[in-house]
């Protein structure tokens, strides 16, 4: 656990994502190394990005998911 490696007065921070490639530049800068992007993820990232305006309330998101065709 993080508490096991922190020294007194230190603070730990976690960056988390489904894959490090989502924040590639940030992750590579932090770890000082290149992140290999799997071929399937490279293909997925070439696809068209689609966005949908939606209220921030979970109920709206839930209704959207329940009515997908």
Please tell me about this protein's structure.
The chain is mainly α and 69 residues long. It has one domain (2-66). The protein has four helices and no strands. The protein has helices at residues 2-5, 24-31, 39-45, 58-66. The longest helix is centred in the C-terminal third of the chain and has 9 residues, at 58-66. The protein is flat, with a radius of gyration of 18 Å. The N and C termini lie far apart (43 Å). This is Threonine synthase. Pfam families: THR4_C. InterPro entries: TrpB-like_PALP_sf.
Number of DSSP E strands: 0
First-to-last CA distance: 43 Å
Structural class: mainly alpha
Mean pLDDT: 89
The radius of gyration over CA amounts to 18 Å
Which regions are unreliable across 5 or more consecutive residues at pLDDT < 50? Answer: none
Helical coverage, percent range: 40-55%
Question: Outline, from the CA principal axes?
Answer: flat
Beta-strand portion reads under 5%
- The number of helical runs is 4
Number of domains: 1
Largest sheet: none
- Following the backbone from N to C, one meets helices and strands in this order, namely HHHH
InterPro entries: TrpB-like_PALP_sf
Pfam families: THR4_C
Protein name: Threonine synthase
């Amino acid at each position: 656990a993080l508490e096991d490696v922190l020294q007194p007065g230190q603070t730990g921070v976690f960056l988390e994502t489904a894959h490090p490639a989502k924040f590639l530049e940030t992750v590579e800068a932090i770890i000082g190394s290149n992140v290999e992007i799997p071929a399937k993820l490279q293909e997925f990232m070439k696809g068209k990005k689609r966005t949908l305006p939606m209220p921030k309330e979970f109920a709206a998101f839930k209704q959207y998911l329940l009515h997908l065709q």
